[in-house]
Amino acid sequence: MFTNRRDFLATAAAASSLRAQSANDKPAYGLIGAGGRGRYLSRYFNQLGAQCVAVCDVYEPNIEEALKISPGAKRYINHEELLQQKGIDFTVCAGPDHWHMPHLLDSVRAGKDCYTEKPLARTLAEGAQVVKVVEASNRIVQVGMQRRSAPSLHAAKKLIEVGTLGRITMAKAQWHWNVSKPLNNSPLPGELHWNRFLGSAPKRPVEPMRWRSWRVFKDYAGGNMTDQGTHLMDVILWFTGKGVPKSAVAQGYIAKMTGAEHPDVFSAVFDHGDMLTTWTLDYANAFENGWSILFMGDEGTMRLDDAGVRVWKEPWHQNKTPMIEMTAPVPIETHIQNFLDCIKSRKQPNSTVRTAQEAVAGPHLANIAMFEGRKAKLAADLMTVS
Prior knowledge:
The structure is a single chain. It contains twelve helices and 15 strands. By secondary structure, the chain is α/β, with parallel strands linked by helices. It has two domains: 15-145, NAD(P)-binding Rossmann-like Domain (Rossmann fold); 148-334 and 360-377, Dihydrodipicolinate Reductase, domain 2 (2-Layer Sandwich). The strands form two sheets. A nine-stranded mixed beta sheet has the order 14-13-12-11-7-10-9-8-15, with helices on one face. Strand 11 (290-297) and strand 12 (300-305) form a beta hairpin. Helix 6 (124-135) runs antiparallel to helix 12. The radius of gyration is 21 Å and the shape is globular.
């Protein structure tokens, strides 16, 4: 049985010490995007010693719910006005994907550090622009790929580094949830500032399902290919060091999510040159419910999932009992704490904009391949597709 208790306890002790220090000197932040994810993050930022002093959202009920978590915070519809409020040290950005770039870049240009949700941007070109602007600034930006800050995953990565799996020839990522259903287009309770939600996206009449389920519409997001795919592809690149895929092919279809534009069942294959990665999602089936990644080497196989980390020695059919097992929690607290540490130290955080750009490049490429019905190749600039 492999454990990493010593490293975990050291990390926890450091986080506890920093929380105690923050209690007397709370950094102030503005929450941009106060939906379910934004409020989830805000609770943890508050617990770890930061203070929310401003809330921005285009849906009034979201603002009301966020103010229950942070009474006294000022409310805004437009993030540009929030950024003019004095005393804000950083922003927490959790809006729809098509707002990720403007929320982040406007924060950086206003002199704010930023914790932003993934994926980095809605398109490859936007991602390249974000990297250029942020890296030319002196701002600290953490992207919400929290596995990068999980002590147990760092321990799992070390197993690969010391050669436990031998040569890794294939990685298989999957996500199964039986959650798909027709989109809800009934009227929204509460006021929605529709044109503000659309932003730079094409103008159209109000459709409540586009607000409720923005992730599955092409104008606003890359679907679950880039959403969940960013998390899993990031771990694959991080663990193997193989680099961004050179090409991708993909197919998918809408099984149950009537009204959506992005599929709820798909499979993509990525070519890294000396390794293949598959990325499969089925939101109409719950077999092995949740996410998992298989790293397949000529000397062993590693599986990561919510249950933890397991490693089998090759050949598997003669070694079906794992030789290594450990739990692998992915606490959001350690990722947020890393960001808070970095805004004090001015060191780069665990999940930089360049890391995030590389993580989502493959999924963006797969969407292009799927919707254009061809093999898509990505140039070294992570922007040019042929």
